[in-house]
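Q: What structure does this chain adopt?
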Amino acid sequence: MTVLLWVSLLSLLVWLWLTCCHGFFWRTDVTLPERRAPDRWPDVAIVVPARDEADVLPLTLPGLLAQEYPGRARVILVDDHSGDGTAGLAAALADSGALPLTVTAPPPLPAGWTGKLWALRHGVELACAGPPADRPAYLLLTDADIAHGPRSLAALVSAAGSADLDLVSQMARLRVSTRWERLIVPAFVYFFAQLYPFRRSNRPGSRTAAAAGGCSLVRTDALERAGGVAAIRGAVIDDVSLAKAVKATGGRIWLGLAEQVDSVRPYPGLAPLWRMVSRSAYAQLRHSPALLLGTVLGLVLVYLVPPAATVAGLAAGRPDVAAAGAAAWALMAGTYLPMLRYYGRPALAAPLLPFTAFLYLLMTVDSAVQHRRGRGAAWKGRTYQGLPDN
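A:
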């Protein structure tokens, strides 16, 4: 029990540090910075890579085409060799808004590229073709399952111009309709913010850099300065890689929670949510067994020790152990409350975070197992095994 006391005290110290000294990762007030309308609205190209997205396009593409943007904008949907009629459906939706739509397809996927980034490269090249004067000043890179509010593009552009930002990214609000979505999704965003504290990422000079791939507005010249999409061509976690590339070349980046941007992709059960996490978890650890072991031990110490110490201390009549465990558990639950409120979940769900963290631990281990079996990061019929993550 003495060992458990010391371990529970260590967990409590970690939680005190996370709460007070880790970029206030748990706060949910990082939304688009104060912004003002530019004197002249710059040209924007919206690039949407899409592979087998016929189910969600009717919910998302009309909103993009109907953007209330005072300047000139266009939408380029890149059909990544879909087999469900994505391109035809997109073309049929072309008249659902005021912005012009181009539906195109990239050449066959070459070695060393992920499908999404190959499609993005094709869309960016098409957007920037022609005389330099006709190139868009900004590119909005957004996923086919992301629904934008009518003023989303205008808000992103005005924020970028007002704060002189080269990359503005919003983490879309994910669905929380099913029981498993309500359990997993808020924790997913909470863990991401813990790994990449938004305030640190947004600070010039900080080594932390992150973005959300579902909604990233980037200056065209900043993307070129970073080496273009080709610079991150093999990255499974492409959004973080893009942010690192832009920041490393002197760009100013910003990441926060969404106001008018929502994901409509359904996750009806645990299995699809499991795949969402496990397909990239081991890539996040750079396919390192040492980092995997450290991550597992860290998750146990930070998330599993507090409830275990609380229960064991009460059962053994050791109030010191129970108090240390309960204090750490309370800090954990307290930092989780803002994210639960953001997703409209009750405060009573906060103490369940250790159980969700245990599921994430299993997903991370499964990600490593799938990598060892040669399955790598599997997505929509493709497997990216051994690609470098920048």
